[in-house]
Amino acid sequence: MADLKRDFMANPIIAAVRDVNGLNTALKSAVEFVFLLDASLMNINRRVRQIKESGKKAFVHLDMVAGLGKDAGALEFLWEDCRPEGVILTKPNLIQTARHLGFVAVQRLFVLDSLSVQTGLKIANESRPDFIEVMPGAVVAKIIAQIRQKSAVPVIAGGLIETRGEV
User: Fold this and answer.
1) Which of 12, 95, 104, 114 could serve as 86's disulfide partner, Cβ 3.0–4.6 Å?
2) Domain 2-166 annotated CATH 3.30.43.10
3) Phi, psi for residue 87 in degrees, rounded to 5
4) Reduced to 3 states, what is the DSSP secondary structure of residue 88?
5) String of b and e for 22-42 (b: at least 16 CB within 10 Å)?
6) Any idea what the Cα angle at residue 70 is, between residues 69 and 76, rounded to 5°?
């Protein structure tokens, strides 16, 4: 895990992939991390394998895999059948299950106002993810700074990021 955090700090750009064209672009790029934000039960194994074979680290957004449940059984399936390095989760109750299986767990938080920041921090402190992804990343630089002051968990800015300078 320490190696992965170090790799992330050295390579903070993450490809967010929603389709085959995006996947192909990500595979040819210099990014080290790929977030799969759209897949199905029929193609998830193949997509994760492609990412890993290209030398990149695959993270699967559990809520975005069509045909797969959003529960511990789905995490067990991903671990046994696909083996991505990590999972992106919106349900804090699955964080510890994911970590116990061996995944790197990313807790996705949607920040709309100051109350959602407080609630998100409380959730993250209780669920203890490996990373916190704050959405939307392009408009929350101030909020990310607040989270970094109150949590030792590395923060990922997700959504609407277009340039390295926005990271």
Assistant:
1) 104
2) no
3) -130, 150
4) strand
5) bbeebbeeebbbbbbbbbeee
6) 75
d(CA 132, CA 124): 7
Q: Which residue has the tokens 């046994």?
A: 80
Each residue's pLDDT tens digit, 94-142:
999 999 999 999 999 887 777 888 888 898 889 999 998 888 765 556 6
- pLDDT for 163 equals 64
Segments making up each domain of the chain, as ranges? 2-166
What residues are paired with 15 via a beta bridge? 34
Q: Where are the beta strands (DSSP E) in 14-137?
A: 14-17, 33-36, 39-40, 57-61, 65-66, 86-89, 104-110, 131-135
Helix axes 20-28, 44-53, angle to 10 degrees: 10
- Residue 13 CB-density burial (10 A; 0-12 exposed, 13-18 middle, 19+ buried): middle
Within 8 A by CB and 6+ apart from 73, the residues are: none
pLDDT of residue 65: 96
Both structure tokens of 82: 């696909």
Residue 150 near residue 121, CB atoms below 8 Å = yes
